[in-house]
Amino acid sequence: MAEQSFKRFHLGFPISDIEETRKFYGEILGCDIVRSSERTININFWGHQLVGHLIPEFAGKHGTNEIDGNPVPVHHFGVILEWDEWEALAERIRASEHDFVFEPYVRDKGLPEEEGKMFFRDPSGNTMEFKTFKNEDQIFAG
Fold first, then answer.
1. What is the CATH number of domain 10-55?
2. pLDDT tens-digit profile of 110-119?
3. Cα gap 21→14, rounded to integer Å
4. Separation CA 17–CA 41 (nearest Å)
């Protein structure tokens, strides 16, 4: 496959509270809140556009699939960060006393595909997975 240029994605997702969402994404994750209204909030999520839609009855609904022996929520999103950024984010989450779904861990330690992962939920119950790789060429390796 030819080398791809950076493309931004857009994700709309349900939330249960605008102010809790603003605080979590803005203060804890460090994202810029671009704009908001009574029913939506737009977030610059590491260069990608997230739009939280106030629909409390749909927020946080998910099934799971077992991965690495863990029941991983199927509906999840996140960003692949540089290793030190990933570690810094894990520390910010810990410092905020926000719970992890799965504490940060490293799989395949010492192998070319070494990968760090962590899962946590926003205040509306939406699950996020943040990853890092020792070797970025392993992101799409098979």
1. 3.10.180.10
2. 999 999 999 9
3. 11
4. 10
Selection from 94, 118, 114, 92 nearest residue 105 by Cα: 118
For residue 93, the one-letter residue type is I
* CATH architecture classification, 63-142: Roll (3.10)
Evaluate whether 22 touches 30 at the Cβ level (below 8 Å): no
| Sequence ranges of the chain with CATH classification 3.10.180.10 | 10-55, 63-142
Using alpha carbons, list the distances in angstroms from residue 93 to 3, 4, 14, 45, 70. 34, 32, 22, 16, 20
Task: Tell me the two tokens of residue 45.
Answer: 């999520």
Q: Indicate the length of the chain as a whole number.
A: 142
The candidate with the shortest Cα–Cα distance to 80, out of 139, 13, 11, is: 139
Q: Is the pTM of this model over 0.85?
A: yes
